[in-house]
Amino acid sequence: MTITKDTRVVVVLPAYNAAQTLEKTYADLPKESVSKIILVDDVSQDQTVEIAHALGLSVIIHIQNRGYGGNQKTCYIEALKEGADVVVMLHPDHQYDSKLVPELVAPIIAGEADMVMGSRILNGRALAGGMPIWKYAANRILTFVENLIFKTNLTDCHSGFRAYSRKFLTTVPFLLNSDDFVFDSQMIAQAAHCGFQIGEIPVQARYFPEASSVNFKVSTIYGLKTVGVMLRFLLQRFGWAQAGYLNSRLPDVVSKYHHETIFRQ
């Protein structure tokens, strides 16, 4: 797919200790399809920032560690300020194939979706690609239940390779989401609540020592928090409780003094 020069695609890299993999991730990006690349460093203890500067990336450095979700909040605000039409979130650990950015953004540019996820399950090779069996099983169970609750039809609700339309990011109040890993699950809940269409493309993930991958304990906590997101979604649906990150809209939670730079057309 060819992305026209009128479509501003901004790739954001939420980074933490990505020095060993950042150059490989950057090398694979199809530069002709990307308008800007922004790396947000979450207080890395290695040479991530120095390498990012050497590659010519736009670099934002957090003054203190804000977590995976907190990192994404900065990523999306900066991308919106840059006038992005489509924002691609890509882990800089070289786990996902960044060559697929054009395929990932294609449904958004075509008006077929406002959120697109790279599914590690769709091609049927997740286990062959090295995904641990326990992670695969947990993914299948959680995704099955999430589809029931959110009324979606996804194969992988837990991918770290995603694209969002400007309309999506200027609507959902992602700044109210968690600062940890469950941020991603809340984004799906917000998409479902607001009626946004979610698409998928197949992607082969790589599993190797340098690729960031949460351990069993962290995955378990993430899974339990995702269950909590689903419960809050149901309570909201039946009118038994209200969740601010579902009810609000981004303009409602952003200072009026930043509206001109974030919500400009």
Q: Would you kindly provide a written description of the structure presented here, covering whatever features stand out?
A:
This protein has 265 residues and is of the alpha/beta class. The protein contains eleven helices and seven strands. A seven-stranded mixed sheet has the order 3-2-1-4-6-5-7, with helices on both faces. Helix 5 (133-150) packs parallel to helix 8 and helix 7 runs parallel beside helix 8. The longest helix is centred in the last third of the chain and has 22 residues, at 216-237. The model has no long low-confidence stretch (mean pLDDT 94).
CATH superfamily: Spore Coat Polysaccharide Biosynthesis Protein SpsA, Chain A
Strand order of the largest sheet: 3-2-1-4-6-5-7
Please state the second-level CATH architecture.
Alpha-Beta Complex
Q: What is the count of structural domains?
A: 1
CATH class: Alpha Beta
Average pLDDT, all residues: 94
Number of β-strand runs: 7
Rg, Å, rounded: 17 Å
Largest sheet: 7 strands, mixed
